[in-house]
Amino acid sequence: MTKREIIQMVLQGQKPPYVPWSCGFTQEAKAKLQAHFGAVALEDALQNHLLKLGSDIGFFTDLGHDHVQDVFGVVWDRSIDKDIGNVEGCVLPEPTLKQYTFPDPLDRRFFADIPDRIAKYGDRFRVFQIGFSLYERAWTLRGMQNLLMDFYDHPEFVHELLNTIADYNIAQVKAALKYDIDAVYFGDDWGQQRGLQMGPRLWHKFIQPVLKRMYAAVHDGGKYVFIHSCGDVDEVFDDLIGLGLNCFNPFQPEVMDVAALMQQYRGRLVFHGGLSTQKTLPYGTVEDVRAETRRLLEMGRAGGYLFAPAHDVEGDVSLENILAFIELIQNQPGYRNN
Amino acid sequence: MNILDDVRQSVIDGNMEVTQKLVQKALAENVPAEQILKDGLILAMSEVGRLFESGEFFVPEMLISARAMKSGLALLQPHLAAANIQAIGKVVIGTMQGDLHDIGKNLVGMMLEGTGFEVIDLGVDVSPQKFVEAVKEHQPDLIGCSALLTTTMPRMKDVVTALKEAGLRDRVKVMIGGAPITEKYAHDIGADIYAPDAASAATRARQSLN
Lengths: 338, 210
Prior knowledge:
The structure holds two protein chains of two kinds. Chain A has one domain: TIM Barrel (Alpha-Beta Barrel), CATH 3.20.20. Helices cover 43% and strands 15% of the residues of chain A. Chain A is built from 14 helices and eleven strands. In chain A, helix 10 links the parallel strand 9 and strand 10 (270-275). Chain A is globular. The termini of chain A are close together. Chain B is globular, with a radius of gyration of 17 Å. Chain B has helices spanning 3-13, 16-28, 33-53, 59-82, 103-115, 128-138, 154-165, 183-189, 198-208, and strands at residues 89-95, 117-121, 142-146, 173-177, 193-194. Chain B has nine helices and five strands. Chain B has a five-stranded parallel β-sheet with strand order 2-1-3-4-5, sandwiched between helices. Chain B has two domains: 3-82, Methyltransferase, Methionine Synthase (B12-binding Domains), Chain A, domain 1 (Orthogonal Bundle); 89-208, Cobalamin-binding domain (Rossmann fold). The interface between A and B is medium-sized, with 29 and 24 residues.
Protein backbone atom coordinates (compact mmCIF):
# COMPACT_ATOMS: atom_id res chain seq x y z
CA MET A 1 0.00 0.00 0.00
CA THR A 2 1.16 3.53 -0.64
CA LYS A 3 1.60 6.02 2.16
CA ARG A 4 -1.31 7.91 0.66
CA GLU A 5 -3.58 4.89 0.99
CA ILE A 6 -2.46 4.27 4.57
CA ILE A 7 -3.39 7.83 5.58
CA GLN A 8 -6.70 7.52 3.75
CA MET A 9 -7.42 4.33 5.73
CA VAL A 10 -6.77 6.15 8.98
CA LEU A 11 -8.97 9.08 7.97
CA GLN A 12 -11.74 6.67 7.01
CA GLY A 13 -11.64 5.12 10.47
CA GLN A 14 -10.02 1.85 9.42
CA LYS A 15 -7.21 0.04 11.22
CA PRO A 16 -3.95 0.63 9.31
CA PRO A 17 -1.18 -2.02 8.97
CA TYR A 18 1.08 0.26 11.03
CA VAL A 19 0.97 3.74 12.53
CA PRO A 20 1.89 6.26 9.82
CA TRP A 21 3.89 9.38 10.65
CA SER A 22 4.86 12.82 9.50
CA CYS A 23 7.48 14.56 11.62
CA GLY A 24 8.61 18.19 11.40
CA PHE A 25 11.89 19.79 12.42
CA THR A 26 13.12 23.36 12.90
CA GLN A 27 16.13 24.58 10.90
CA GLU A 28 18.54 23.80 13.76
CA ALA A 29 17.21 20.26 14.24
CA LYS A 30 17.19 19.71 10.48
CA ALA A 31 20.86 20.66 10.31
CA LYS A 32 21.71 18.02 12.93
CA LEU A 33 19.75 15.39 11.04
CA GLN A 34 21.20 16.35 7.68
CA ALA A 35 24.72 16.05 9.08
CA HIS A 36 23.79 12.58 10.30
CA PHE A 37 22.17 11.36 7.10
CA GLY A 38 24.86 12.90 4.90
CA ALA A 39 24.03 12.77 1.22
CA VAL A 40 20.54 11.31 1.68
CA ALA A 41 17.81 13.93 1.31
CA LEU A 42 15.85 14.38 4.55
CA GLU A 43 12.55 13.82 2.72
CA ASP A 44 13.84 10.37 1.75
CA ALA A 45 15.45 9.57 5.10
CA LEU A 46 12.36 10.49 7.14
CA GLN A 47 9.80 8.76 4.93
CA ASN A 48 7.06 11.12 6.10
CA HIS A 49 3.61 10.12 4.95
CA LEU A 50 2.34 13.64 4.37
CA LEU A 51 3.58 15.56 1.35
CA LYS A 52 3.42 19.20 2.32
CA LEU A 53 2.47 21.52 -0.55
CA GLY A 54 2.01 25.25 -0.81
CA SER A 55 3.65 27.24 1.94
CA ASP A 56 2.75 26.90 5.61
CA ILE A 57 3.83 30.39 6.61
CA GLY A 58 3.98 32.12 3.23
CA PHE A 59 6.70 33.89 1.30
CA PHE A 60 9.07 36.55 2.50
CA THR A 61 11.17 39.42 1.19
CA ASP A 62 14.56 39.70 2.84
CA LEU A 63 14.95 43.15 4.38
CA GLY A 64 18.46 42.45 5.69
CA HIS A 65 19.67 42.39 9.31
CA ASP A 66 17.66 39.23 10.03
CA HIS A 67 14.38 40.89 9.12
CA VAL A 68 11.90 39.65 6.51
CA GLN A 69 8.53 40.88 5.27
CA ASP A 70 5.64 38.58 4.41
CA VAL A 71 3.16 39.08 1.57
CA PHE A 72 0.75 40.78 3.98
CA GLY A 73 3.36 43.46 4.72
CA VAL A 74 4.13 42.18 8.21
CA VAL A 75 7.80 42.52 9.21
CA TRP A 76 9.32 39.61 11.12
CA ASP A 77 12.45 39.75 13.26
CA ARG A 78 14.31 36.49 12.71
CA SER A 79 17.45 37.36 14.67
CA ILE A 80 16.60 34.72 17.26
CA ASP A 81 13.79 32.50 15.97
CA LYS A 82 15.14 31.56 12.55
CA ASP A 83 12.08 29.58 11.45
CA ILE A 84 9.17 31.97 11.92
CA GLY A 85 10.39 35.01 13.80
CA ASN A 86 8.53 37.58 15.82
CA VAL A 87 6.30 40.33 14.49
CA GLU A 88 7.78 43.80 14.54
CA GLY A 89 5.57 46.86 14.31
CA CYS A 90 1.88 46.85 13.45
CA VAL A 91 0.41 46.80 9.93
CA LEU A 92 -3.07 47.76 11.15
CA PRO A 93 -2.49 50.37 13.88
CA GLU A 94 -6.18 51.34 13.75
CA PRO A 95 -9.17 48.96 13.82
CA THR A 96 -10.03 49.42 10.16
CA LEU A 97 -9.24 47.81 6.81
CA LYS A 98 -9.91 51.03 4.87
CA GLN A 99 -6.25 51.80 4.18
CA TYR A 100 -5.20 48.19 3.68
CA THR A 101 -5.17 45.98 0.60
CA PHE A 102 -4.94 42.23 0.98
CA PRO A 103 -2.26 40.45 -1.08
CA ASP A 104 -3.13 38.25 -4.06
CA PRO A 105 -4.27 34.84 -2.76
CA LEU A 106 -3.47 33.35 -6.17
CA ASP A 107 0.20 34.39 -6.07
CA ARG A 108 1.81 31.76 -8.28
CA ARG A 109 4.48 30.98 -5.70
CA PHE A 110 1.92 29.17 -3.52
CA PHE A 111 1.26 26.63 -6.26
CA ALA A 112 4.46 26.61 -8.30
CA ASP A 113 6.05 23.47 -6.90
CA ILE A 114 2.92 21.34 -6.59
CA PRO A 115 3.20 19.39 -9.89
CA ASP A 116 6.90 18.59 -9.42
CA ARG A 117 6.47 17.60 -5.78
CA ILE A 118 3.55 15.32 -6.58
CA ALA A 119 5.53 13.79 -9.45
CA LYS A 120 8.45 13.09 -7.14
CA TYR A 121 6.59 11.96 -4.01
CA GLY A 122 3.30 10.83 -5.50
CA ASP A 123 2.98 7.91 -3.10
CA ARG A 124 2.44 10.31 -0.20
CA PHE A 125 -0.76 11.91 1.08
CA ARG A 126 -0.86 15.42 -0.37
CA VAL A 127 -1.71 18.30 1.96
CA PHE A 128 -1.97 21.91 0.85
CA GLN A 129 -0.89 24.07 3.75
CA ILE A 130 -2.36 27.39 4.83
CA GLY A 131 -0.57 28.67 7.89
CA PHE A 132 -1.65 31.59 10.10
CA SER A 133 -5.03 30.69 8.75
CA LEU A 134 -7.31 32.99 10.75
CA TYR A 135 -6.78 34.28 14.29
CA GLU A 136 -3.01 34.23 13.87
CA ARG A 137 -3.16 36.13 10.58
CA ALA A 138 -5.42 38.66 12.29
CA TRP A 139 -3.09 39.26 15.21
CA THR A 140 0.07 39.39 13.08
CA LEU A 141 -1.60 42.28 11.22
CA ARG A 142 -3.22 44.03 14.17
CA GLY A 143 -0.98 43.05 17.12
CA MET A 144 -2.04 40.39 19.59
CA GLN A 145 -3.02 42.62 22.48
CA ASN A 146 -4.85 45.00 20.16
CA LEU A 147 -6.83 42.17 18.60
CA LEU A 148 -7.71 40.60 21.92
CA MET A 149 -9.12 43.93 23.10
CA ASP A 150 -10.80 44.54 19.72
CA PHE A 151 -13.03 41.54 20.46
CA TYR A 152 -14.71 43.86 22.97
CA ASP A 153 -13.88 47.33 21.65
CA HIS A 154 -14.47 46.82 17.91
CA PRO A 155 -16.36 43.56 17.33
CA GLU A 156 -17.54 44.60 13.84
CA PHE A 157 -13.95 45.19 12.76
CA VAL A 158 -12.93 41.76 14.09
CA HIS A 159 -15.75 40.09 12.14
CA GLU A 160 -14.70 41.97 8.99
CA LEU A 161 -11.00 41.19 9.44
CA LEU A 162 -11.58 37.48 10.07
CA ASN A 163 -14.00 37.15 7.16
CA THR A 164 -11.62 38.94 4.80
CA ILE A 165 -8.82 36.57 5.86
CA ALA A 166 -11.21 33.66 5.24
CA ASP A 167 -12.06 35.02 1.76
CA TYR A 168 -8.34 35.12 0.98
CA ASN A 169 -7.90 31.53 2.21
CA ILE A 170 -10.97 30.23 0.42
CA ALA A 171 -9.70 31.69 -2.87
CA GLN A 172 -6.44 29.87 -2.25
CA VAL A 173 -8.22 26.62 -1.34
CA LYS A 174 -10.24 26.78 -4.57
CA ALA A 175 -7.05 27.21 -6.59
CA ALA A 176 -5.35 24.34 -4.73
CA LEU A 177 -8.32 22.07 -5.43
CA LYS A 178 -7.41 22.20 -9.13
CA TYR A 179 -4.43 19.99 -8.27
CA ASP A 180 -4.60 16.36 -7.19
CA ILE A 181 -4.37 17.10 -3.48
CA ASP A 182 -5.96 15.14 -0.61
CA ALA A 183 -6.39 17.69 2.17
CA VAL A 184 -5.93 21.25 3.29
CA TYR A 185 -3.83 21.67 6.43
CA PHE A 186 -4.74 24.88 8.23
CA GLY A 187 -2.58 26.27 11.00
CA ASP A 188 -3.90 28.63 13.67
CA ASP A 189 -2.81 28.62 17.31
CA TRP A 190 -5.78 29.33 19.59
CA GLY A 191 -4.53 27.69 22.74
CA GLN A 192 -2.30 28.47 25.63
CA GLN A 193 -0.92 26.11 28.26
CA ARG A 194 -4.35 26.18 29.91
CA GLY A 195 -7.43 26.94 27.82
CA LEU A 196 -8.08 29.09 24.77
CA GLN A 197 -6.34 32.46 24.52
CA MET A 198 -9.61 34.24 23.82
CA GLY A 199 -11.76 31.84 25.88
CA PRO A 200 -14.57 29.65 24.58
CA ARG A 201 -17.25 32.36 24.43
CA LEU A 202 -15.29 34.60 22.05
CA TRP A 203 -14.02 31.57 20.08
CA HIS A 204 -17.60 30.48 19.44
CA LYS A 205 -18.75 33.97 18.59
CA PHE A 206 -15.92 35.10 16.31
CA ILE A 207 -13.80 32.13 15.18
CA GLN A 208 -16.22 29.23 14.76
CA PRO A 209 -18.54 30.79 12.12
CA VAL A 210 -15.55 31.72 9.95
CA LEU A 211 -13.98 28.27 10.29
CA LYS A 212 -17.28 26.85 9.09
CA ARG A 213 -16.92 28.74 5.80
CA MET A 214 -13.28 27.74 5.32
CA TYR A 215 -13.79 24.06 6.14
CA ALA A 216 -16.88 23.91 3.90
CA ALA A 217 -14.80 25.16 0.96
CA VAL A 218 -12.46 22.19 1.43
CA HIS A 219 -15.24 19.64 1.90
CA ASP A 220 -17.12 20.98 -1.11
CA GLY A 221 -14.05 19.97 -3.11
CA GLY A 222 -14.20 16.48 -1.60
CA LYS A 223 -11.01 16.88 0.45
CA TYR A 224 -10.08 16.39 4.10
CA VAL A 225 -9.55 19.17 6.64
CA PHE A 226 -6.57 19.21 9.00
CA ILE A 227 -5.87 21.87 11.62
CA HIS A 228 -2.79 22.63 13.67
CA SER A 229 -3.58 24.58 16.82
CA CYS A 230 -1.09 24.66 19.67
CA GLY A 231 -2.17 24.56 23.28
CA ASP A 232 -5.03 23.30 25.39
CA VAL A 233 -7.96 23.44 22.95
CA ASP A 234 -9.66 20.06 23.38
CA GLU A 235 -12.77 21.78 24.75
CA VAL A 236 -13.65 22.70 21.13
CA PHE A 237 -13.01 19.28 19.56
CA ASP A 238 -16.71 18.48 19.32
CA ASP A 239 -17.39 21.85 17.71
CA LEU A 240 -14.55 21.28 15.24
CA ILE A 241 -15.88 17.85 14.34
CA GLY A 242 -19.25 19.51 13.81
CA LEU A 243 -17.57 21.87 11.34
CA GLY A 244 -16.13 18.91 9.46
CA LEU A 245 -12.60 18.69 10.88
CA ASN A 246 -10.89 15.37 10.10
CA CYS A 247 -7.49 15.62 11.77
CA PHE A 248 -6.09 17.62 14.68
CA ASN A 249 -2.45 18.48 15.37
CA PRO A 250 -0.22 18.88 17.47
CA PHE A 251 -1.93 16.92 20.24
CA GLN A 252 0.42 18.13 22.99
CA PRO A 253 0.71 15.64 25.86
CA GLU A 254 1.61 18.44 28.32
CA VAL A 255 -1.77 20.08 27.92
CA MET A 256 -4.15 17.25 27.02
CA ASP A 257 -4.66 13.62 27.95
CA VAL A 258 -3.61 12.04 24.66
CA ALA A 259 -4.49 8.48 25.67
CA ALA A 260 -8.00 9.33 26.82
CA LEU A 261 -8.70 11.65 23.88
CA MET A 262 -7.51 9.13 21.30
CA GLN A 263 -9.89 6.58 22.74
CA GLN A 264 -12.75 9.04 23.12
CA TYR A 265 -12.54 10.39 19.56
CA ARG A 266 -11.46 7.32 17.62
CA GLY A 267 -13.60 7.08 14.49
CA ARG A 268 -14.56 10.74 14.67
CA LEU A 269 -11.28 12.67 14.73
CA VAL A 270 -7.73 11.65 13.80
CA PHE A 271 -4.83 12.97 15.86
CA HIS A 272 -1.45 13.94 14.43
CA GLY A 273 1.36 14.57 16.94
CA GLY A 274 1.53 13.46 20.54
CA LEU A 275 5.24 13.09 21.37
CA SER A 276 6.26 15.57 24.05
CA THR A 277 8.39 18.43 22.71
CA GLN A 278 8.19 20.46 25.92
CA LYS A 279 9.54 17.72 28.16
CA THR A 280 10.56 14.30 26.84
CA LEU A 281 12.42 15.26 23.68
CA PRO A 282 14.58 18.06 25.11
CA TYR A 283 14.98 16.72 28.67
CA GLY A 284 14.32 12.97 28.58
CA THR A 285 16.79 10.17 27.95
CA VAL A 286 16.88 8.04 24.80
CA GLU A 287 14.99 5.41 26.81
CA ASP A 288 12.33 7.97 27.82
CA VAL A 289 11.84 8.88 24.15
CA ARG A 290 11.61 5.21 23.18
CA ALA A 291 9.10 4.44 25.95
CA GLU A 292 6.83 7.35 25.02
CA THR A 293 7.07 6.54 21.30
CA ARG A 294 6.19 2.88 21.97
CA ARG A 295 3.19 3.96 24.08
CA LEU A 296 1.92 6.22 21.30
CA LEU A 297 2.44 3.58 18.60
CA GLU A 298 0.62 1.05 20.76
CA MET A 299 -2.31 3.44 21.27
CA GLY A 300 -2.41 4.28 17.56
CA ARG A 301 -2.36 0.70 16.42
CA ALA A 302 -6.16 0.59 16.37
CA GLY A 303 -6.26 3.63 14.08
CA GLY A 304 -7.13 7.28 14.39
CA TYR A 305 -3.54 8.38 14.79
CA LEU A 306 -0.58 9.78 12.82
CA PHE A 307 2.62 9.82 14.84
CA ALA A 308 4.72 12.99 15.19
CA PRO A 309 6.48 15.07 17.78
CA ALA A 310 3.92 17.59 19.06
CA HIS A 311 5.75 20.49 17.37
CA ASP A 312 8.60 20.84 14.90
CA VAL A 313 11.54 19.41 16.88
CA GLU A 314 13.62 22.27 18.28
CA GLY A 315 17.39 22.63 18.23
CA ASP A 316 17.70 21.74 21.92
CA VAL A 317 16.86 18.08 21.25
CA SER A 318 19.82 15.73 20.96
CA LEU A 319 20.42 13.80 17.75
CA GLU A 320 20.21 10.58 19.79
CA ASN A 321 16.71 11.45 20.99
CA ILE A 322 15.60 12.32 17.46
CA LEU A 323 17.01 9.09 16.05
CA ALA A 324 15.38 7.10 18.87
CA PHE A 325 11.85 7.85 17.69
CA ILE A 326 12.71 7.71 13.98
CA GLU A 327 14.15 4.23 14.44
CA LEU A 328 11.07 2.95 16.25
CA ILE A 329 8.52 4.29 13.78
CA GLN A 330 10.45 3.02 10.79
CA ASN A 331 10.92 -0.40 12.38
CA GLN A 332 7.23 -1.12 12.83
CA PRO A 333 6.73 -4.59 11.34
CA GLY A 334 3.69 -3.46 9.34
CA TYR A 335 5.80 -0.75 7.70
CA ARG A 336 8.86 -2.91 7.02
CA ASN A 337 6.70 -5.61 5.44
CA ASN A 338 4.52 -3.17 3.53
CA MET B 1 -24.31 51.76 46.28
CA ASN B 2 -20.90 52.88 47.46
CA ILE B 3 -18.91 54.65 44.72
CA LEU B 4 -15.99 52.29 45.29
CA ASP B 5 -18.28 49.35 44.51
CA ASP B 6 -18.99 51.06 41.20
CA VAL B 7 -15.28 51.66 40.57
CA ARG B 8 -14.62 47.98 41.19
CA GLN B 9 -17.41 46.87 38.90
CA SER B 10 -16.26 49.18 36.09
CA VAL B 11 -12.76 47.68 36.25
CA ILE B 12 -14.14 44.13 36.28
CA ASP B 13 -16.31 45.08 33.27
CA GLY B 14 -13.23 46.52 31.55
CA ASN B 15 -15.02 49.82 31.02
CA MET B 16 -12.17 52.33 31.00
CA GLU B 17 -14.29 55.45 30.44
CA VAL B 18 -16.59 54.63 33.34
CA THR B 19 -13.62 53.82 35.60
CA GLN B 20 -12.08 57.21 34.83
CA LYS B 21 -15.32 59.06 35.50
CA LEU B 22 -15.90 57.23 38.76
CA VAL B 23 -12.34 57.73 40.00
CA GLN B 24 -12.66 61.46 39.26
CA LYS B 25 -16.01 61.51 41.00
CA ALA B 26 -14.59 59.72 44.04
CA LEU B 27 -11.69 62.18 44.20
CA ALA B 28 -14.15 65.06 43.92
CA GLU B 29 -16.08 63.57 46.84
CA ASN B 30 -12.83 63.60 48.83
CA VAL B 31 -12.45 59.85 49.04
CA PRO B 32 -8.72 59.43 49.82
CA ALA B 33 -6.69 58.32 46.78
CA GLU B 34 -5.20 55.46 48.76
CA GLN B 35 -8.67 54.14 49.55
CA ILE B 36 -9.77 54.42 45.90
CA LEU B 37 -6.64 52.48 44.96
CA LYS B 38 -6.94 49.75 47.59
CA ASP B 39 -10.68 49.31 47.91
CA GLY B 40 -11.45 50.14 44.29
CA LEU B 41 -8.77 49.30 41.76
CA ILE B 42 -6.72 46.68 43.60
CA LEU B 43 -9.72 44.80 44.94
CA ALA B 44 -11.18 44.80 41.44
CA MET B 45 -8.02 43.34 39.92
CA SER B 46 -7.91 40.76 42.66
CA GLU B 47 -11.42 39.72 41.59
CA VAL B 48 -10.28 39.73 37.93
CA GLY B 49 -7.45 37.39 38.94
CA ARG B 50 -9.91 35.12 40.72
CA LEU B 51 -12.20 35.05 37.68
CA PHE B 52 -9.18 34.25 35.47
CA GLU B 53 -8.02 31.43 37.71
CA SER B 54 -11.51 29.97 37.87
CA GLY B 55 -11.77 29.98 34.06
CA GLU B 56 -14.49 32.63 33.78
CA PHE B 57 -12.13 35.29 32.42
CA PHE B 58 -9.57 34.88 29.66
CA VAL B 59 -6.83 37.05 28.23
CA PRO B 60 -9.14 39.59 26.49
CA GLU B 61 -11.15 40.24 29.66
CA MET B 62 -7.95 40.55 31.68
CA LEU B 63 -6.51 43.02 29.17
CA ILE B 64 -9.51 45.35 29.16
CA SER B 65 -9.79 45.20 32.96
CA ALA B 66 -6.09 45.97 33.32
CA ARG B 67 -6.48 48.87 30.90
CA ALA B 68 -9.36 50.27 32.95
CA MET B 69 -7.36 49.83 36.15
CA LYS B 70 -4.31 51.59 34.66
CA SER B 71 -6.41 54.50 33.45
CA GLY B 72 -7.82 54.92 36.94
CA LEU B 73 -4.39 54.55 38.52
CA ALA B 74 -2.99 57.28 36.25
CA LEU B 75 -5.61 59.69 37.65
CA LEU B 76 -4.73 58.69 41.20
CA GLN B 77 -0.97 58.85 40.81
CA PRO B 78 -0.46 62.60 41.51
CA HIS B 79 -2.66 62.29 44.59
CA LEU B 80 -0.81 59.19 45.79
CA ALA B 81 2.54 60.90 45.28
CA ALA B 82 1.34 63.99 47.15
CA ALA B 83 0.23 61.80 50.05
CA ASN B 84 3.52 59.86 49.86
CA ILE B 85 1.75 56.55 49.31
CA GLN B 86 4.22 53.88 48.20
CA ALA B 87 3.63 50.82 46.09
CA ILE B 88 3.41 47.57 48.07
CA GLY B 89 6.61 46.40 46.42
CA LYS B 90 8.75 46.59 43.34
CA VAL B 91 9.17 43.93 40.63
CA VAL B 92 11.53 43.80 37.67
CA ILE B 93 10.20 41.63 34.83
CA GLY B 94 11.47 40.44 31.45
CA THR B 95 11.57 37.53 29.03
CA MET B 96 14.64 35.34 28.91
CA GLN B 97 17.56 35.99 26.62
CA GLY B 98 16.63 34.63 23.20
CA ASP B 99 12.88 34.75 23.86
CA LEU B 100 10.85 37.45 22.13
CA HIS B 101 7.42 36.17 23.21
CA ASP B 102 6.06 38.72 25.60
CA ILE B 103 2.29 38.49 25.98
CA GLY B 104 2.58 36.29 29.08
CA LYS B 105 5.12 38.64 30.61
CA ASN B 106 2.92 41.65 29.77
CA LEU B 107 -0.08 40.05 31.46
CA VAL B 108 2.01 39.32 34.54
CA GLY B 109 3.10 42.97 34.57
CA MET B 110 -0.49 44.17 34.36
CA MET B 111 -1.66 41.86 37.13
CA LEU B 112 1.27 42.90 39.34
CA GLU B 113 0.40 46.57 38.84
CA GLY B 114 -3.19 45.72 39.59
CA THR B 115 -2.06 44.18 42.88
CA GLY B 116 -0.28 47.37 43.85
CA PHE B 117 3.27 46.67 42.75
CA GLU B 118 5.54 49.07 40.93
CA VAL B 119 6.64 47.20 37.81
CA ILE B 120 9.86 47.80 35.93
CA ASP B 121 9.55 46.03 32.59
CA LEU B 122 12.90 45.25 30.95
CA GLY B 123 11.09 43.96 27.86
CA VAL B 124 12.18 40.97 25.80
CA ASP B 125 15.46 39.11 25.24
CA VAL B 126 16.85 40.16 28.63
CA SER B 127 20.30 38.82 29.49
CA PRO B 128 21.12 37.57 33.01
CA GLN B 129 23.56 40.48 33.32
CA LYS B 130 20.80 42.96 32.52
CA PHE B 131 18.66 41.48 35.30
CA VAL B 132 21.62 41.84 37.68
CA GLU B 133 22.12 45.47 36.69
CA ALA B 134 18.38 46.16 37.09
CA VAL B 135 18.43 44.61 40.58
CA LYS B 136 21.33 46.87 41.53
CA GLU B 137 19.67 49.95 40.09
CA HIS B 138 16.05 49.46 41.17
CA GLN B 139 16.45 47.28 44.26
CA PRO B 140 13.23 45.35 43.63
CA ASP B 141 11.61 42.89 46.01
CA LEU B 142 11.24 40.38 43.18
CA ILE B 143 12.28 39.66 39.65
CA GLY B 144 9.90 37.90 37.27
CA CYS B 145 11.42 35.77 34.49
CA SER B 146 9.29 34.56 31.57
CA ALA B 147 10.03 31.94 28.90
CA LEU B 148 7.82 30.40 26.23
CA LEU B 149 10.49 28.17 24.74
CA THR B 150 12.31 25.13 26.08
CA THR B 151 15.38 26.57 24.35
CA THR B 152 15.32 29.73 26.50
CA MET B 153 14.18 28.37 29.86
CA PRO B 154 17.75 27.33 30.82
CA ARG B 155 18.59 31.07 30.90
CA MET B 156 16.47 31.23 34.09
CA LYS B 157 19.07 29.19 35.88
CA ASP B 158 21.70 31.57 34.50
CA VAL B 159 19.81 34.48 36.03
CA VAL B 160 19.82 32.77 39.44
CA THR B 161 23.55 32.03 39.07
CA ALA B 162 24.34 35.58 37.94
CA LEU B 163 22.50 36.99 40.97
CA LYS B 164 24.48 34.69 43.26
CA GLU B 165 27.77 35.69 41.66
CA ALA B 166 26.89 39.35 42.06
CA GLY B 167 26.10 38.75 45.75
CA LEU B 168 22.49 39.81 45.22
CA ARG B 169 20.65 36.52 45.54
CA ASP B 170 19.55 37.13 49.13
CA ARG B 171 18.23 40.59 48.31
CA VAL B 172 15.64 39.62 45.74
CA LYS B 173 13.11 36.83 45.22
CA VAL B 174 13.06 35.11 41.84
CA MET B 175 9.68 34.25 40.29
CA ILE B 176 9.50 32.24 37.05
CA GLY B 177 6.76 31.22 34.65
CA GLY B 178 5.88 30.40 31.06
CA ALA B 179 4.48 27.51 29.03
CA PRO B 180 7.21 24.89 29.61
CA ILE B 181 7.94 25.89 33.24
CA THR B 182 6.91 23.67 36.13
CA GLU B 183 7.00 23.87 39.92
CA LYS B 184 9.72 21.22 39.87
CA TYR B 185 11.84 23.20 37.43
CA ALA B 186 11.55 26.27 39.67
CA HIS B 187 12.70 24.19 42.60
CA ASP B 188 15.54 22.56 40.64
CA ILE B 189 17.08 25.86 39.54
CA GLY B 190 16.66 27.50 42.94
CA ALA B 191 13.91 29.99 42.03
CA ASP B 192 11.68 31.12 44.89
CA ILE B 193 8.27 31.25 43.21
CA TYR B 194 6.64 29.39 40.34
CA ALA B 195 3.64 31.07 38.75
CA PRO B 196 1.48 28.98 36.40
CA ASP B 197 -0.37 32.05 35.07
CA ALA B 198 -0.56 35.83 35.34
CA ALA B 199 -3.18 35.87 38.06
CA SER B 200 -1.29 33.53 40.36
CA ALA B 201 1.93 35.45 39.63
CA ALA B 202 0.32 38.50 41.22
CA THR B 203 -1.12 36.52 44.15
CA ARG B 204 2.11 34.69 44.88
CA ALA B 205 4.25 37.81 44.51
CA ARG B 206 2.08 39.56 47.06
CA GLN B 207 2.19 36.59 49.43
CA SER B 208 5.97 36.51 49.17
CA LEU B 209 6.21 39.96 50.76
CA ASN B 210 4.85 38.64 54.07
